[in-house]
Amino acid sequence: MTRRILGIDPGSRLTGFGIIEQREKQQPVCLLGGCIRLEAPDMPSRLGRLFAEIQDIVKIYKPTELAIEQVFVHKNVQSALKLGQARGVVIAAVMSSNLPVFEYAPRAIKQAIVGKGSADKIQIQHMVQILLALNAKPQADAADALAVALCHLNTVSEMHFFKSHLPQKRQRGKRSIQWKQYDRTTSRNTD
Questions:
Q1: What is the pLDDT of residues 98-138, one digit of tens each?
Q2: How much of the chain exceeds pLDDT 70, in percent?
Q3: What pLDDT digit, counting tens, does each position of 33-48 carry?
Q4: Which of 144, 15, 145, 7 is closest to 65 using CA atoms?
Q5: Which of 4, 38, 69, 171 has a Cα-to-Cα distance from 100 of 20 to 30 A?
Q6: Which CATH number fits domain 3-190: 3.30.1330.60, 3.40.50.1010, 3.40.1780.10, 3.30.420.10?
Q7: What is the pLDDT of residue 80?
Q8: Catalytic amino acids?
Q9: If we measure between CA atoms, which residue out of 1, 17, 5, 6 comes closest to residue 141?
Q10: Residues near 128 by Cβ (< 8 Å), separated by ≥ 6?
Q11: Alpha-carbon torsion, ordered 114, 117, 118, 120, to 10 deg
Q12: What are the extents of the domains in the chain?
């Protein structure tokens, strides 16, 4: 099964995007990474352009799923509202293609890619370059979008791994159900 993930780092003036593809049991590869510059003077025009650009990317590259960064409020509520509008437009643009949408907190993305939730943009760029075997460091917003896609790939892969390794229910009689204990450190079942 081939998975093609569109990662988005939304912004009201600059939106990073990246597409990674993973074929079954192979390393993910970067198909595309870049930024959508939204230079219109008013917010509705910028959002309209963002909608059209995302729809074009989806039509051309045919991703199978969308991973997008969640909004967080640091100090400026107005910026968070604009970021939320950009996120909403991206999600609306992919819904016409019925793509499943997955959202990740910025801290979770950094944790998944760098190993610490307080990583900076340079660390993200470096790790994305290594994980995708890129010849050069991607632009910061494109790296952030590729990091979102990689975070999703790793998160879903972990969920599938643990689901496939969960112990099966054992029923004794008709009244009690017991679970085998699963030891993650040794990857074996214990009783």
A1: 999 999 999 999 999 999 888 999 999 999 999 999 999 99
A2: 81
A3: 999 999 999 999 999 9
A4: 7
A5: 38
A6: 3.30.420.10
A7: 85
A8: 9, 69, 141
A9: 17
A10: 113, 134, 137, 138, 143, 146, 147, 150
A11: 40
A12: 3-190
| Nearest to 127, CA basis, from 152, 155, 151, 102 | 151
Residues in the chain: 191
Q: 104, 146 in Cβ contact below 8 A? A: no
Reading the block at residue 86, the tokens are 């950009």
Three-class DSSP category at 188: strand
pTM value?
0.80
Mean confidence (pLDDT) of the chain: 84
For residue 43, give both structure tokens. 């917010």
